[in-house]
Amino acid sequence: MRVLALAVLVIAVPLLAPARADEGMWTFDNFPSAKVKAAYGFGPDKAWLDRVQKASVRLDNGCSASVVSKDGLVLTNHHCISDCAQALSTARDDLLANGFVTAARKDERICPGLEASILQSISDVTDRVRAGTADATAQTLAQRRGAVIAAIEDEACGKDTTKRCEVVSLYRGGQFKLYRYDRYQDVRLAFAPELQAAFFGGDPDNFNFPRYAYDMALVRLYRDGQPAKGLKPLKLDPTGAEPGELVFTSGHPGSTQRLLTVSQLEYDRDRRLPWIIENLAQLRGTLLATAGIGEEEDRQVREALFGVENSIKAIMGQRLALVEPDFFALKVAEEKQLRDALATRADLRAKYGDPFAEMAAVASARRGQFIQMQMLESNPGSGSSLLGDARRLLRASVERGKSPADRLPEYSDARLASLERSMLAESPTHPVLERLQIEYWLLKSREYLGADHPAVKALFGNQSARDIARQVVEGTNLDELAARKRLWENPAEVAGSNDPAIVLVKRIDDAARAARKTWEQTVTGPTTIAAEKIARLRFDVLGDSVYPDATFTLRLSYGAVKGWTDPSLGEVAPFTYARGLAQRATGAYPFNLAPRWSENQGKLRPDLQFNLVSTNDIIGGNSGSPLLDKEGRIVGLVFDGNIHSLGGAYGFDAALNRTVSVASPLIIEGLRTIYGAKALADELTAG
Amino acid sequence: MRVLALAVLVIAVPLLAPARADEGMWTFDNFPSAKVKAAYGFGPDKAWLDRVQKASVRLDNGCSASVVSKDGLVLTNHHCISDCAQALSTARDDLLANGFVTAARKDERICPGLEASILQSISDVTDRVRAGTADATAQTLAQRRGAVIAAIEDEACGKDTTKRCEVVSLYRGGQFKLYRYDRYQDVRLAFAPELQAAFFGGDPDNFNFPRYAYDMALVRLYRDGQPAKGLKPLKLDPTGAEPGELVFTSGHPGSTQRLLTVSQLEYDRDRRLPWIIENLAQLRGTLLATAGIGEEEDRQVREALFGVENSIKAIMGQRLALVEPDFFALKVAEEKQLRDALATRADLRAKYGDPFAEMAAVASARRGQFIQMQMLESNPGSGSSLLGDARRLLRASVERGKSPADRLPEYSDARLASLERSMLAESPTHPVLERLQIEYWLLKSREYLGADHPAVKALFGNQSARDIARQVVEGTNLDELAARKRLWENPAEVAGSNDPAIVLVKRIDDAARAARKTWEQTVTGPTTIAAEKIARLRFDVLGDSVYPDATFTLRLSYGAVKGWTDPSLGEVAPFTYARGLAQRATGAYPFNLAPRWSENQGKLRPDLQFNLVSTNDIIGGNSGSPLLDKEGRIVGLVFDGNIHSLGGAYGFDAALNRTVSVASPLIIEGLRTIYGAKALADELTAG
Questions:
Q1: Does the model's pTM come out above 0.80?
Q2: Within an 8 Å CB–CB cutoff, is residue A566 touching chain B?
Q3: With 80 as the cut, is the pLDDT of residue B375 above it?
Q4: How many CB pairs (< 8 A) connect A and B?
């Protein structure tokens, strides 16, 4: 599993009944310690929870991590910092290919735009959010709620850039909570292995097991130019876990859809997921062929390629879960439990009406508006950082002139600081990738919306997609920090800019805003209203013995180190060991060893734990989470889920679903024996 | 709609009731003339049918056509001969880019491997086929039936290469008929416009309307080195059709799935179509990016690219039809009609048991075997002609040594002649495309089957997909006719050949044969048995007032020239005219004009009919069909269906589904005015 909020995990469980053993991504303020204790003989107490919470790090690019030394050293996955390594690379100095091994702390390098957050407190703001939008309609709700939330966040954090405040909707609107974080805007890369060591086996082995991946990296949090002080690290256990042992993951699962209604699931199954798959599959082919042109092309696009391959595999797994008749029947049955409660209890009907019918009624608007929203508003340029920056500069120049209540929420005062920082970070662009992404976006927009759509005509004029993409990438100055800074600081100049990236996004900005407004009024608004009624109905029927869907906020899962019986592979053991690596290394990509490993892997103990699986319930965003024993010691580093885990966005199957981690003994031995990184290894083991 | 047996068309109709107005792909021996007469005041008589049948041509690459002069001139689509134009092109002389305009008949060029067939007679062999496999089991049925059919075909045609005999299964096993054709193995390209004129608007306009495509071409049938004699041409109407006019299409629709059971439809909807879409979308991206590298790469891959783009659009349309709840409910209701008949009539139960349950029971085998069958057996090399030839040489060398009854059916005596001809045709290979296809196939096989699958291990050894593909394409001699001829004529040499293409397919031939055998025994056999029972049940309940699913055999459809009311476009008029072309031509690909058109299009009458739509029920394979008026004169040339027609593989919707044709006046005026091809235009209008 790699970076962003992409789904991992599986199938099957009565979500409405209290969760089964080992299931759940629990918030730290509602962790079922008693239940865990009953099953495993140990349940974490408040001190344990507090300690782990304050050593758990969110990397705001979509990953998790943990503090592992008193000098702010943080352990995460290689694939969580690979965008940083990519950004710091040049054609001559390729950190992905060669790894990054520092001789001393002074050589650590700032990851452009990367921020880290550590959760300090959670407080309930449900009443205030509800009160602030009590009289909102479906048409006004999205805008009004955005304004209320921005006000709460602004009030709590102000302009203090060392804090981050976020109002989180849990249980799909059942609760609203204010999460306050300590925030670190100076995150430096301290160690990275070669991509080939981190991602040994490549796409074929991704989401599979047995595995032999050294998917780890170290960054360091800095404050005022010095390593951050005052953090309480988790200790790394040099001996690792044992089969059957109770283990926890503390991390930030990105997004799950386990509480969706049947009509929403049908939409995902029949429309949304197939659309994403077709779109990503073509993009994947485009990236693969471009990477094949030459070494420099490969260097420029491979990060994007890995992201796309990871996403498409995850989403294909989600779709397959939803077309499984037994699984879908279970979802129908779960919903029926709530529908039956409504049918038999007049008090519930009086409170909520029929929110399931309300939700189903949104389907046709969702279907009619989806593609337009996607192509024009959600991701202009299919990930192009040039068009993304152009869009942000253009919108910020307009939104900053408005009163806070009227702004698009992503331009609220509380969020402008991060935005400014990412806009003004020194980060290289990759012209090969940029051209590819812009051309791709233009072609797919024309394909999906039709050549006669007004926005498509505005984008294309009398030109081809290829020419437009070339002109933007060759003609823009937005790849230069100075140009971005000038426009950021002089918003009045943006509207008249003749920078081709800004000109291109400006051509459709009205259409994009209109698409978003329609979406918010006809889809987001009514969906939110119906979902909140269902969430409250669920609390009325089941209490809070359920866990909320993942929201890229801190969660704790529990489970055991355990293999599984696979329908096609048979018995799968929970650990791999160093001795297995040589057998799997054919020498041909992606089963080739990085040079340092070819040279040194023979020096590892043959029985050194390599990777392991456990029954923890995780999903994309958990990448980089520490795997902890009951003492709160790190026995592994989560980096993937097995193939059965891919449907986990929609439900969890304890029999087949497994979390995949790098074993703690390998983390240390790899640093010492393969990389000679003695200082870091010592720092890590000292804690 | 382009070439192969790819689906076009739409949604909705009680298939089990007699077909509604304008629906149906009718065989010439069961055409509902009385019904057409009742609706339109004219119904074709036997003489009309015979005349049209014997001027209707099947191009055996998956297209339709018609005889248009007494000297064997044949009218079809450009996209039906674009593979020929591609094969005849070199880097210096690019017939796709420049078109092919002959000064004289002697300049006409043989299309390598292309054959044409004209249907002469149909006879019923149902009893013989059934009797020959009466005691077959699900395990033996596929092989046994293949042998019986090969025997009938061999007996009817012998080794006469001027005839083609094919036993066709109609109504999914409800009838078996022997189709006898006159066969032409020397088909020469006489005229082709530029690809950009034929496919103006490219992929964005494909399956759309209004259109401005000159998607026509002329080939000539030769016999013994001379233009074929004795054919009775259809006449081209220089004035064209009128709105509302009754029109027919006579052609060879490739394949429809309108008679599938609900369990089969579910499989297509949830498994098969999504798999194809993901696979083709990635291939599309790979081809697009490769075409973007340079002109020569573009030349080598674009034919394959257009084929993939056409297929994926068609298949996405099919999937969307199947996820439409109303449409699927109709299918369920249709099946219920037969199920109810079974439930209420003991005689039917006694004859057939419960064939729907039998069909549903095949699903899990189909699901378990599908990918293996696809990747190892169905299409080794994802279309690579080198691996295809290697596979055929290898298998032929084995199969030709067996008795006819034991052979794989595609190596029966009746089929060996065509196979030999295509193997020994002089046809260039495109190394860029071949490498791409082979690498793609290897990567997707590993992805789908897993790196640890024995066949995948056998394919890869210790190499990367890229290296294997490069070695095959650089090392093989199969691109040379002499090498293929030598191995074809000396089958004993094949097994020991060290040609890398043969070595590669040999590595998995046992696994591929085993996958096929399992598939035939657990999927094809039981499916055939259940389908035949359902077909007979359908005849018992409904008689033969229904038409059979398309099977790439000659069919007649009827309808009217008519626009439609589109959900998003509003009213769409039935014709486009020459005056509209200039407005749509932006100058940027794919809306640029070919040079001859830039120069001469102003000379066309502004009100010259360009393209038109009609309500005929067609599907992929109908490309190149003549659109005929009630006199049997050609008023158009079918080349596409509109976007609503894409679900037509599964059902037909008369309100929205439209056939798209080149208007006959443009066919002639284009030849005269744009291309100065006076001799051909005169030949065409003389008939």
A1: yes
A2: no
A3: yes
A4: 107
| Beta carbons within 10 angstroms of residue A371's beta carbon | 17
> What local confidence, expressed as pLDDT, does residue B4 receive?
36
Chain A residue with CA closest to B466: the answer is A292
pLDDT digits (tens, 9 = 90+) for A263-296: 999 999 999 999 999 999 999 999 999 999 999 9
Q: In what order do the strands lie in the sheet with B246-251?
A: B555-560, B246-251, B626-628, B634-641, B659-663, B609-614, B575-577
Cβ–Cβ contact B265 with A under 8 A = no
Question: Tokens 């389907």 map to which residue?
Answer: A363
Q: Which residues of chain A fall below pLDDT 70?
A: 1-21
Over residues A465-524, the pLDDT tens digits come to 999 999 999 999 999 999 999 999 999 999 999 999 999 999 999 999 999 999 999 999
B84 alpha-carbon distance from chain centroid: 15
Residues on chain B touching A293 (C-beta within 8 angstroms)? 293
| Residue of chain A whose alpha carbon sits nearest to that of B286 | A285
SS3 A177: strand
Residue A577: strand pairing partners: A609
Report the alpha-carbon distance of residue A494 to residue A21 in Å, rounded: 56
Report residue B157 as tokens.
């045609």
Token pair belonging to A292: 């094949």
Residue A14 and residue B226: Cα distance in Å, rounded? 75
| Amino acid sitting at position A493 | E
Kindly tell me if the per-residue pLDDT of B180 is higher than 90.
yes
Residue A263 vs residues A270, A525, B73: alpha-carbon distances, Å: 11, 16, 57
Q: Are B232 and B50 in contact (CB under 8 A)?
A: no
Which DSSP state fits B22? T
Residues of chain B neighbouring A469 (CB-CB closer than 8 A) = none
Mean model confidence pLDDT for chain B: 93
Of the candidates A205, A277, A285, the beta carbon closest to that of B286 is on A285
pLDDT recorded at residue B568: 77
Does residue B91 belong to the interface with chain A, where contact is any CB pair within 8 Å? Answer: no
By the CB < 8 Å criterion, does B45 face chain A?
A: no
Task: Report how far residue B44's alpha carbon sits from residue B48's, in angstroms, rounded to the nearest whole number.
Answer: 6
List the one residue out of B298, B97, B302, B275 whose CA is nearest residue B203: B302
- Measure in Å the smallest separation between the Cα of A451 and chain B Cα atoms: 6
**What pLDDT does B243 receive?**
97
Which chain A residues are closer than 8 Å to B271 by Cβ?
323
